[in-house]
Amino acid sequence: MDVGFIGLGAMGIAMARNLAKAGHQVRAWNRSPIDAKDLNLVKTAREAFQADVVFTMLSDDTALRAVVLDGGLLKDARKDTIHVGASTISIGFAEELTARHAEAGIAYISAPVFGRPDVAAAAQLNVLVGGAESDIDKVTPLLTTIGRKVWPMGEKPAQANAAKIAGNMMIGMAIGAMSEATLLAEGNGVAAKGFFELMLESLFGCRVYQSYSAKIVAEEYSPGFKMSLGLKDLRLASEAAERAGKRLPILETTRAQMTEAVHAGLGDQDWSALADYMRKT
Question: Are 214 and 67 in contact (CB under 8 A)?
């Protein structure tokens, strides 16, 4: 299949490479120059958008709006193109994208993913998908190439974005819980390593606790997911809760803690560095 891919950050480049390895003709574009000789890099986003299926994996609403909408890509796109939005974006913007694509006569689905760059490289992402069933069926072979499982979330693209935002909110809350538990344990003479071994083998033996507790114990916070991006996702969760008329006090507490940590200069570290900030304040 002829595939366009826009956005070659740590996640996007791994996804694009897996599509190319599977034999698809991938034309890829990034906003800034990158060294990726194994990919067919094109000079403009417009070139990448001229494909059977186009993936976008850009950092936020602003970047996606600038490239796709402000860049006029929909106006010149093929009418049989399916645009797969893999970014974590706001529900409101997902709805706007859906409407703008419908006006242009171009299919659009949302397909955000759960997984860090190493998971993307191993093609083990969990892919959430929302959109018309017929469009999803057409791109499912591509989605199964980049992920271990595809999870339908509904017939509206924004439903996949809502599920992704809620999931990332839960990860942020788990990091907040682990950070506070570390303070409580260490403050009373219990080593974090032994405490988390207990938790992982008894109550919280899941992937999120396994991966982030290991970083907290080792005090090693190289970014798998930058805290600044995690804070962005918590903001999206706050906005989604407000749209739904719901009050989420644990979310707001976690967001306030992470805001302080980012303002303290930890935005480029992994978002589990919240524990480091709390240890030192």
Answer: no
- Residue ranges of the domains in the chain? 2-155, 162-279
Residue 58 is which amino acid?
L
CATH number of 2-155: 3.40.50.720
User: How confident is the model over 211-235, as pLDDT tens digits?
Assistant: 999 999 999 999 999 999 999 999 9
Q: Is the pTM for the entire model greater than 0.90?
A: yes
Token pair for residue 250?
């644990």
What is the secondary structure of 19-73 as a DSSP string?
HHHTT-EEEEE-SS----TTSEE-S-HHHHTSSSEEEE--SSHHHHIIIIITTTH
Distance CA 227, CA 219 (A): 15
Query: pLDDT averaged over the chain?
Result: 97
Residues carrying an active site annotation: 164
For 131-158, b where at least 16 C-beta lie within 10 A, e where not — what string?
beeebbebbeebbebbbeebbebeebbb
Domain 162-279: give its CATH superfamily: N-(1-d-carboxylethyl)-l-norvaline Dehydrogenase; domain 2 (1.10.1040.10)
Residue 138 structure tokens = 């057409």
Q: In a 3-state reduction of DSSP, which class is residue 235? A: helix
